[in-house]
Amino acid sequence: MKITNQRRTFLSAGVFSLASLVALSAHLPAAEKSPKQAVPVEAATSAFEPTIYDIESTNFDADFSPGESTTNTPAELDEIYAPNDGYLDSYGVNRPLDLLIAPLDSLYEKTGLRIGVANTMLFMQPIGGQSSRYGAAGDLDLMSSWTLIGRGTKDTGRFVFTGEYRYQMGSQPPSRIGGQMGTIVAPTGTFNDRGWVIRDAYWIQRLFDARVRIIIGRADPSDYVGSHWLQNVNNSFINRNFSANPAVPFPGHGPMLGISLRPTDQFYITAGASNAYSNTIRAEFDTLFNEWDIFSFAEAGYTPTFKGLGEGRYAFGIWHMDARSKFSLPEDYGFTFIVDQNLTKNLQVFARYSYSDGTLTNVRQSGQIGLGLSGLLGRKDDLTGAAFALSVPRSEASRNETVLEVFHRFQVSQNTQLSVGLQLIANPGNAPDNDTAGVFYARLRASF
Length: 448
Description:
Elements: H1 5-27, H2 73-81, H3 95-111, E1 113-128, E2 135-149, E3 157-168, H4 177-181, E4 195-207, E5 212-219, H5 240-243, E6 254-264, E7 267-275, H6 286-290, E8 294-302, E9 305-306, E10 310-321, E11 332-342, E12 347-356, E13 363-374, E14 383-393, E15 401-413, E16 416-426, E17 436-447
Antiparallel strand pairs: 1-2, 1-17, 2-3, 3-4, 4-5, 5-6, 6-7, 7-8, 8-10, 9-10, 10-11, 11-12, 12-13, 13-14, 14-15, 15-16, 16-17
């Protein structure tokens, strides 16, 4: 594979930066211990424990890497099985689902097989701009995680398998609204009408007291690098500035190999590669062996616990997409800086900056900052979010685009959440005749 001078310079700078982070972590003093005890590795994947991404009990051990997003299957299952305090729980609304949940929990305790189902529906109504047509769609997830090796120990081996069905409700799905509004970054992209797909089918192995994690199989690299703690379209922000990383041309679900190392409790490094032609709606095995074009990535992070604040994560990642001759697409590369920090047990903030060479995405530079606050209305499992984004486009014909999103998520019952939100978009990048646009949305999620 030919390596250009530009690519060689970029990779050299990336390796140097990652090495610097390793050296820095070796000389930093040990982080202050929080009065709250860390959640054990197995507790993060056992029934009826707090979710590992609950603001009150962030667990850096996670599934594969502290840099992973909460949309990966084990994290979604943790969220489903976490105990939640809903507004309607005292009225017995959970009893029908309890009849389903109890056998599934018993199955997990006996066999290590954990199964979960979640259905998320989104209604989105444009406000101003070039579009006035509403969009509505649903996302049905069938998830499983089977611990076959090392149950009750740190060094587990698990097989993860998920299927997903996305369906349209009404005249169009919300995923089409961004194009109609002329935005550079879509108000949402997940809620479309692509039908049934197999999302994940991978094995994850932990070794050496979970200091080494290896993942191999069909997976999505965007679940494991370049994300922040509140990056979950199912229960947090839905604009792609915050629910994805719009400056990175991630391939879809497909063949992937990754490794994550945890040399100390305060440092991690993750690296891997995926088939550059991966497409979630079909299997891409021929291109893996015939074309040899890959999407490669690496991320290193420092995860301290600051006295008086809480857990934090400070990460730097790089990526490279090979030129894909089959589609006549050029190579591309970029990097991302990420900051996640708990300020109190209820308040969490994040910031992210991403740069790409700009040959494969609409965005050359992307910056976001935001927060999540639990308990604003007196219910600990409610979540309020606010975030701001600036996108610098690849094309000189487009404008810089800014987005503000706010939402509130109500924990209606143990297994049901209702979110309402608003996005305000200034200077939609591809709509020069409109200075402002926006969308209102409502999202309902039920799971067991």
